[in-house]
């Protein structure tokens, strides 16, 4: 339970305490969720879901050490891959329960389907390519201390892939298993509304993510709940900026303590509210590439607010302090 007694400080202190005493949400701790299949539609689908191995099954050898390093990076990316993270997010903020939870893009479902062709960058992607894209877009690596994602061949990729490989043991390769991605969501009856979404956010999301959407930190500065927009959140190249993707994730996984609580319409509305705020610019948008150019090149074919003017602000321009050092090179647009 989260109590917003005494204002934001009480909430942050309580968040820190639940982490320290093992009562935190599983995406913060990596502990197995008690209800990882709650968002599945019906008992039939639940029965089909793959159960990844328990942490206790990690082997006590050199490979197991790599798996544990990968899990540590996944759970606290800003600490364990510090040089390549330019915001306040960790992998486990979107891939819940340490990448185990169905319908939150679980890593056991992703690993077996790579290499595969991705239309985002129009090339066959390896798993290393895919992780590199996550650092570039979801972790906003251009604002990181190194100015970019880990270089190819980095032990960061090696350990993360070891973790994903171990987690997916027993699944056939080349087949997309039930529970992959963010799951399906129906189209809403009404056009998504930022105004309705703001009310949904205030009633269901602000207690964790803050009324301003900037998340919560404990008294030591440790992120307890991640920011959903602004300079320390995912950038305009990340998949979560697409309203349909965010709506599916929210429908199946949020609120964290009551996944599935929101109606389909509420999920679409609050996704529209979250994704219609400023955030770091798409790292492919460099040099003289304008927002209008970016809209035509990368953002014209999906649901999103990139390129729109909301509350007097043109979305996609980013923030003045942003570095352009991490822009993907030509032909190197591995997508997040």
UniProtKB/TrEMBL annotation:
Q: Which UniProt keywords apply?
A: Heme, Iron, Metal-binding
One Pfam family this chain carries?
Answer: SoxA-TsdA_cyt-c
Q: Where is the Cytochrome c domain?
A: 192-278
Locate the coiled-coil region(s) and give their ranges. Answer: none
What Gene3D superfamilies does the record point to?
A: Cytochrome c-like domain
Q: Where are the transmembrane segments?
A: none
Name of the protein in question: Cytochrome c domain-containing protein
